[in-house]
Amino acid sequence: MSSPGEAESSRGVPALLLSGAAIGSAFWVMAWLELPPGGPAFMTAVAVASAGYLAAVALLAMDAGVSRRVLLICLVLALGWRVPLVALPDAWSSDAVRYVWDARVQRAGLNPYDVRPEDEEVDWLHTDLTRGVDAAWLPTIYPPVAQLYFRSVAGIAESIRAFRLAALACDVAIGLALLALLRATGRPPGWV
Fold it and tell me: For residue 121, with 0-12 CB atoms within 10 Å meaning exposed, 13-18 middle and 19 or more buried, which class applies?
């Protein structure tokens, strides 16, 4: 039998699931239809996902004592939303191509702040993937800690999917750290 607080908290579950379904559906549509970024269909999908997110935040804000069940639903939905993002075509990842390039530069013992992808002296560093790097006339703009991250991920696999999976792992780690911090400070775990 559930407590009165859990019963109240469970009333918003259908609306929360509907919000989550809107977000997830929008992400799946973007991934599987390979919508071009910035186009009308892409922006419509972003608007649907944004509306679902805002509705979910509003629902959770109205309920100060989020039940474990609701929190678990939110966490499962959040992980589910990332599945299509991992599956997106590589064409959507111009930033990740730069991450791979910066990692290759570092692993070759060069400085990514001095080397530009278009420099002929480093043409030997390119792969089929990195030949399409955006803003090839510029050296990297990413800070040193990001460079360490790029090198670490590319040390496992030099692919866009590796960077997407690493981002997913970071999402999970941050979520778990936030939950631990909320518990340690006596705040509701629903704030995560």
Answer: exposed
